[in-house]
Design a protein that fits this description.
Chain A is α+β, with helices and mostly antiparallel strands and 181 residues long. Chain A has helices at 84-96, 155-170, and strands spanning 17-19, 29-31, 38-39, 44-53, 56-62, 71-72, 75-77, 100-111, 116-125, 136-143, 176-179. In chain A, strands 4, 5, 6, 7, 8, 9, 10 and 11 form an eight-stranded mixed beta sheet that branches. In chain A, strands 1-2-3 form a three-stranded antiparallel beta sheet, with no helix packed on it. In chain A, a hairpin with a 6-residue loop joins strand 2 (29-31) and strand 3. The longest helix of chain A has 16 residues, at 155-170. The interface between A and B is large, with 44 and 44 residues.
């Protein structure tokens, strides 16, 4: 979901101009010169899980761009009309066909450069059989020393796995707030 | 920031139709019949703080709609190119003119009905003098028994304050994930 500049007004279809609105705002927005609609652009949430089975974690090999063929924790864009946990569970079903019990929030990662916030919950797998959807080539369990660290799709996956295995060693899982430059 | 249906394509200005795209998607999206752009609509993040000074918490009396004249924790829509904590700090400066030190994430509230996620951080005030911006009539410190519970602007403020004073009694602040129906 790449962001391109808004060219036309969603209300009336006229060409927009980027400028600071006259309402006290301090940022440039796409403003419609015809109907005066101001178009706000805001960060997107990506929601997912760390699904675990004993000492192993479930990763999915991506069957889609970006990062085709690389490994990721199940995650995707949060939709309207769902909670963060519901979205994370939905993505885990869609991408891995996994069966699990949702647990607490684990990482919140801000990726300011691309305007995203990633939210990962721990999820206790209740089966080690998976039925991945069309977005996934393969869903597989990895112990810490089997993780394909050089073949991970995203920094958010790597940072979350780092924290997961570190907390697992202490036996105490906390919530981690992480900024990705 | 009310959501209305998208009427025109942001790329070419043609009228859009709401339908399930042909790419395997399962949800209705605003699709452009001319240039085939698919317009995704996703939840918005509201970021803010629980600014505290001793046993008191800072609330702002709203000078804007919605909920003009009601009391709220400082919070607003997260912008592109900032982290969740940076956005929360920015809103606290804009709405209260407060001086503070940012602390950890405290509540994450999903408000699925309106497609929002609210994220509140604790913030230790370093001064009890405030300089509220134009969006705020008054910024004032309240002890727990002074909180205007019936004059709070939002459920997310009430739920966050409930958790804050409860955790304060135990002396241990955890991260709370809350769903607002």
């Amino acid at each position: 979901m790449l962001r391109s500049a808004i060219k036309h007004c969603r209300e009336c279809g006229s060409g927009v101009v980027y400028r600071v609105p006259d309402d006290g705002d301090t940022r440039q927005r796409a403003v419609c010169p015809s109907c005066h609609t101001i178009h706000y652009e805001n960060p997107l949430n990506v929601v997912g899980t760390v699904p675990y089975w004993g000492d192993k974690v479930l990763l999915c090999k991506r069957n889609i761009e970006p990062r085709f063929g690389k490994w990721t924790l199940p995650a995707g864009f949060m939709e309207l009309n769902e909670t963060t946990a519901e979205g994370a569970a939905r993505e885990t079903v869609e991408e891995a066909g996994a069966q699990f019990e949702m647990q607490g929030l684990f990482t919140m990662l801000s990726v300011a450069r691309v305007g995203q916030v990633h939210l990962f919950f721990r999820a206790r797998l209740t089966s080690d059989q998976f039925d991945p959807g069309t977005e996934t080539i393969e869903a597989r369990l990895f112990a810490e020393d089997e993780i394909p660290w050089d073949e991970l799709a995203f920094r958010t996956t790597k940072e979350t796995l780092d924290r997961y295995f570190a907390d697992r060693r202490t036996g105490v899982f906390s919530v981690h707030t992480i900024d990705i430059a």
